Amino acid sequence: MRLLLSAAFVALATAPAMADEIRIAHIHDMTGALEAYAAQSQIGLMMGLEYATEGTMQVEGNDLVVTEYDSQLRPDLGRALLAQAFGDDGADIAVGPTSSGVALAMLPVAEEYERILLVEPAVADSITGADWNRYIFRTGRNSSQDAISNAIALGQEGVVIATLAQDYAFGRDGIAAFREALEGTPARLVHEEYAPTDTTDFTAAAERIFNALQEHEGDRRLFVIWAGGNNPMSRIQAMDPGRFGIQMATGGNILPAMVSYRDFPGMEGATYYYYEIPQNPVNQWFVEQHMERYGTPPDFFTAGGMAAGIAIVEALRASGGSTDAEDLITAMEGMHFETPKGEMWFRAEDHQAMQSMYHFRIAIHDGVEWAVPELVREITPDMMDIPIRNQ
């Protein structure tokens, strides 16, 4: 187990206390297949706190102190670390984690300690659905938002779709939501395939998918939901699905992963964020500052982390600086706040952040090492009937 104090706050830990502290625990999967996502989330969280406090890192005269914990993709460790953060380390609010499996293990701890867990970026619907409790809020998109936006992008007349996803909560929740969303479109879902997260040979799965799609006439698509390493898209593309009239489809991803999307010009899907798409003052600051500090544009999970940081500050302001969970719940239910994606708000029924998604078409730009998801249209919250799954 690693416990790291964010470098940005080392000075606060060593300097004489000039104000009360609000302690924020950031528990995320810094080790393992999702470590790139975790690193982005941490950078974004710190930038969000900075932006929302105009650089003071204070709310109502209280210093914001962030401590990082590494959950290592282990649900048991994530649960133990959250209990440590709340019980031993005096955390007032927690943020994270990266993995849906880890998040599900952490939810009961927030309820036990009666403190807020702001989930970012774990996606599974069950986090704000069947396993939800009133101390859980989420700025990250959920599986239904992913699925419905992709169904809007792909669900056209004459389209037949097979799916491939990871065999755990993220993948199965995602496909369940996608299946449900497609029922309201002219497209048909004809086959589902699941594979372990550590799969490296997709030959058998691809052959089953190809055979299933060949039984149906129409515009054949293979829609892939995959997070972390071993993404199967390029491996399956190497098997030449085009000879069966099959095109690949998927949602957005981090920029390093989108290098492989260059093999799929014209591919369509829906994404959570791409730095050139949203046009608003928050995103303008975010892109400029990230480029200046890191030499790269902000990415998928950096934007999510920033949204979480902004939400925390706005909630604390609305509560008058109180970290009491009841005060924060009152402040956060229905709360609107500006993010790099534009306006979000927490739905009162399940505390899921309502937010736009983006229908894209892949293009190849000279001098850009990754494929560019060019905007086809913004899919606004009113265009997505996101189910309330905790009732």
Automatic annotation (TrEMBL):
InterPro entries (alphabetical): BCAA_transport, Leu-bd, Peripla_BP_I
Going by the entry's taxonomy, the superkingdom of the source organism is recorded as Bacteria
GO annotation (BP), single: amino acid transport
Gene3D superfamilies cross-referenced by the UniProt entry: 3.40.50.2300
The answer to whether UniProt assigns keyword Signal to this entry is yes
Residues of the signal sequence? 1-19
CDD domains on file: PBP1_SBP-like
Q: Which residues form the Leucine-binding protein domain?
A: 21-362
Q: Which UniProt keywords apply?
A: Amino-acid transport, Signal, Transport
Q: Which Pfam families match?
A: Peripla_BP_6
Q: Give the record's family classification.
A: Belongs to the leucine-binding protein family.
The protein here is known as ABC transporter permease
What phylogenetic lineage does the species belong to? Bacteria, Pseudomonadati, Pseudomonadota, Alphaproteobacteria, Rhodobacterales
